[in-house]
Write the C-alpha cells for this entry.
Amino acid sequence: MSFYLIYGLIWTIAWLPLGALYVLSDLMFPVVYHLVRYRRKVVRKNLTRAFPNYTQAEIIKLEKKFYHYFCDLCMEIIWQLHAPAKEISKRMTIENLELLYNHAQEKEIVMAMIGHYCNWEWATIFSLHIPSDVPVRIYPVYQKLRNKHYDKMMIRLRNRHGAICVERNNLLRKLVEMRQTGKMGIFPMISDQSPKARFIRHRMQFLNQDTPVFWGTEQLAKKHHYPVFYLDIQRVKRGYYHSVVKPIAIDPLVTEEYEITETFMRYLEESIIARPEFWLWSHNRWKHAKKQ
C-alpha cells in the first residue's frame, strides 16, 4: 500500500511545472541535509578523501552544494514522468550525436559510457534528437531494482521518449537478438559503479584513491568489436544540460587491456574536478578500495 501512496504523490506533483518543483527542491534541502542527514557520513568521507587539500569549511560548502543539486535531480527525475517531448528535448541537448548513430549504422551496435554525473537519467531522451529517417534506437542498460513496483515505474519513465530499457542480465541475449535481426542500437551504460568484490579485475587511481573499476563495457566492446564513446553531460544552468559525445575507442581491438575503462574514468574525473557537486557522492564508491 505504501508504494501506491508514494507513487500517487509522485504522479501528482510530476504535473507541476519544473520551476514549481525547484521550489519544492529548495524546501526539501534542509530536510534531507539537516534532519534526515541522508548518507551524510558517506558523502563527507568521499569528499574528504577525494579532495585532501580542501579545508573542512571547503568540504562542508561543497557537501551542501551536492545536496542542493541532489534535491534538484530528484525533482527533475520526477518531472520526467510527464515531461512533454518538446520541452525536455530543449533541456537536454547533445553535441556530436551523429557519431553515435552513424557508427551504429555501420557496426550495428555502439556502447556509450556514462557516469553518475549531472542528470544521467535524461540521457534516455537522446532518441528525440535522432533524425526520424535513421533506424537507430537507444537501449539504456539498467540494473533491476529489488522492489518490482519501483522497477516498473523507472522503466516506464526511461522508456517514455523512445528508449528501450535492457536489464543488465538480459544484455547478452539482447545483443545476440539484434545481431540476428540486423537491428541497430546505441547502448548507454552507467560505468562508474563499484564492482562486486569477486568481480574485481583491475584498480586505478581515481580522485586520489585506489579504485576498483567496472570493466564490463570494455569486455563486450573488445569481444564483439563495438565502438565505445563517452557521454560528457554538463549542467548549463538549473534545468538545462548539454552533452558532448567523445570517442574512446573506435576500434577496441587495437587498445591495451583496461585502456577503454581507464580512458572513461579519466574523462569522468576531469568533469568531477571541474564541477564536483554534480557527481553522486552518496554512493559508497570505495567500499572495496585498498586501505591507504
